[in-house]
């Protein structure tokens, strides 16, 4: 009989071939991780992982939706417009935001 801790559905059975014969090992399933912002690591709002829904329904339909939080994406858009205008240099942009700002600048030109 298995231990009570291994009878739960959060533990999966793994059949393993060993020198003595086949054995059953128990591995605990990892809990799902919530979607987070690529830069700040904060939890993304409005993003779900439910199966059976369309991709457009699972994430916000805006620029950087499902990848960056709304606050971070607004900072990226502000920096990109300032660099485009010439009031700010690309060297002054935060290093973490630089790749996103460059992507926006390439898209518009």
Describe the structure.
A hairpin with a 2-residue loop joins strand 1 and strand 2. The protein has a two-stranded antiparallel ribbon. The longest helix has 16 residues. With 109 residues, it is α+β, with helices and mostly antiparallel strands. The chain is built from three helices and two strands, in the order E-E-H-H-H. The mean pLDDT is 90. The termini are far apart. Helix 2 packs across helix 3. The chain folds into two domains: 31 residues, no CATH class; 76 residues, no CATH class. The protein is 31% helix and 15% strand.
Q: SS-based structural class?
A: alpha+beta
Q: Tally the helices: what do you get?
A: 3
- How far do the termini sit from each other? 67 Å
Extended strand count: 2
Strand content: 5-15%
Describe the strand arrangement of the main beta sheet, using strand numbers: 1-2
Helix fraction, binned, reads: 25-40%
Integer-rounded radius of gyration:
23 Å
Number of domains: 2
Global morphology: elongated
Q: Largest sheet at a glance?
A: 2 strands, antiparallel
The overall average pLDDT, rounded, is 90
Flag low-confidence runs.
none
Q: What pattern of helices and strands is seen along the backbone?
A: EEHHH
């Amino acid at each position: 009989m298995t231990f009570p801790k291994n009878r739960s559905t959060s533990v999966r059975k793994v059949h393993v071939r060993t020198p003595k014969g086949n054995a059953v090992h128990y591995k605990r399933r990892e809990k799902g991780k919530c979607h987070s912002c690529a830069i700040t690591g904060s939890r993304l709002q409005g993003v779900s992982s439910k199966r059976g829904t369309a991709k457009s329904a699972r994430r916000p339909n805006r620029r950087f939706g499902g990848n960056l939080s709304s606050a971070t994406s607004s900072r990226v858009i502000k920096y990109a417009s300032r660099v485009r205008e010439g009031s700010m240099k690309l060297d002054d942009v935060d290093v973490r935001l630089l790749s996103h700002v460059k992507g926006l600048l390439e898209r518009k030109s």
